[in-house]
Description:
The complex is a heterodimer of chains A (about 375) and B (about 70). Chain A has about 375 residues and is α/β, with parallel strands linked by helices. Chain A has helices at about 15-25, 40-60, 70-80, 95-110, 125-135, 155-165, 250-285, 315-320, 335-340, 360-370, and strands at about 1-5, 65-70, 85-90, 110-115, 140-145, 170-175, 190-195, 210, 290-295, 305-310, 325, 350. In chain A, the strands form 3 sheets. Chain A has a 7-stranded mixed beta sheet with strand order 2-8-7-6-5-3-4, with helices on both faces. A 3-stranded antiparallel beta sheet of chain A has the order 9-10-12. A two-stranded parallel sheet of chain A has the order 1-11. The N and C termini of chain B lie close together (about 5 Å). Chain B has helices at about 10-25, 50-60, and strands spanning about 5-10, 30, 45-50, 65-74. The radius of gyration of chain B is 11 Å and the shape is globular.
Amino acid sequence: MIYLDNAASSHPKPASVLRAVAEQLSKNGANPGRSGHRMAMDASQTIYSARKALANSFGTEAETVIFTMNTTDAINRALKGILNPGDHVVISDLEHNSVIRPLIALRNRGIVTFDVATTGESDEETVANFRSALRPNTRLVFCTHASNVTGRILPIREIGKICRNRGILFGVDGAQTAGTETYFLREDPIDFICIPGHKGLLGPQGTGALILSKPLDITPLLEGGTGSDSLSEIQPNTYPEGYESGTLNTPGIAGLREGVLFTDRRREAIRTHEAMLRNLFIEEMKKIPGFKILGNSEDSVATVSLVHERDHSEKIAHWLNRFGICTRGGYHCSALAHQTMQTIGSGSVRISFGYKNTEKDAYECVKILKKY
Amino acid sequence: MRTKCIGVRSVTYAQKAQDVLKRYGIKAGATKRSSETTAGCGWCVKVPYAQFETAYTLLKNNGVKVTGEIYDIS
C-alpha cells in the first residue's frame, strides 16, 4: 500500500506519537483539570505540556492554545464566537467547506455578510483583491494558508498586514500548513490560526487547536463544565478552559504533543523532502498525455491535483486504489476551490505526499497513471 | 512547611505559575483549592510562606492571571 492522502490525514505517525497515546490510555485515565488527586494532576500536566509545545511551536502563550477536535471545530468556534450581527467577512476563493458553510449559515440567520476575494495570478494581485473586498464594517478576514485542492500557498502575512493597519481581525486556516510552515504569532500579523493535529503535525485524529496571538473576546460555542467556578451558572471566560467545556481528548493530545515535538525538530527537512517529491511527481506527470496539473504554483505545499481530459477524478482514484495507491478523488470538501478552478463536473485526483513517502512511491504512482 | 496559596483563574494558569516560579528558583506546586475558600472549584499555586511576596510579584509580571485570593496552608 502506498499512502498518498496526507492532506486528508497523515500516515504513518511517528513511533513517539503511538507510544504517548498508548501510555496515556494504559497508565492514566483520570480527567484533566477536574479533580485534585495525583493522577488527575498528572493528566493536567500532560495537557499543559501539549499546550506549551504548541505555544512554543506557534510563537504564543500556553493559555491561548484552545484544544479542539479538528480544524473545522476550531474554525466554527472562531467564526461563531467572534462575529456579531452586522459584521462583514472577507475570505479567499480557495476556502474549504469548513469556512464557507458556517459563514453561509451565519448569513442565512441574518448575522453576517461576506465577500469572496479572488486569488490572482500573482500574490500582489491576490493581496490587492483582498484589499478591495474590505468594507467599513469588515470585522474579520479569514484565509487558508494553502489550498487543500492545489496546494497553493497564499500570501497570508501581506493580507494580515492590511488587516492590522485597518484594525480588522485576521484568521488563518492552517489545515494544510501546520507542521511544515513556520509561524510566530507574537510577531506575525495573524490574530488566530485554526489547525488540525492529525495532518502535518502527525498527531492522532480527533485533535486540533484554535491558537491565538493573544486572548480575544470570543463567545464560547460550548458551555458546560470547565473545572473551575463550579457554583456559578455563568460560563467563565477564562482562557483556555472557558473555551474547552467538556472532557478533553487526553490520549490524543498526549500524542499530538509528541507530533509537535517531532515536526519542530525536523520541519525544514520534512518540507524539503516533501517538496522534492512533489516536484519530481509533477515533472513526471507532465510527460503523460491526458492529465492536467491543476493550479501548479511554485509556492505550494506537497499536494498535487490532477484532472483527466476525459474521466471523472473518482474513476482515476479507484484505478489507483486497485494498485494499492491511496489518493483522493472528487471535490475535497471544497466546492468553492473547485468552482474557482472550473473543475465542477470532474473534480480532481489529489496526491498529497508525507514525510515517510519516498521517490519510489512517487514513481510508482506515475507508473500506474501511465497505464490508465 | 508553612505555605501560602495564590489563587489563579484556571488549572492552566496554576501550571504556568508553577513553571514561572520554578524558573526563578521558587519551589511551587499547582493544586486544587479547597471549595471552602472559593465559589466552587478553583486552582492555586502553593509557594513557601517566606517567598510569597516575591512569587506574587513574579506571577503578575509574567502574565499569570491571579485572582487575588491568598490563603495560608500549614
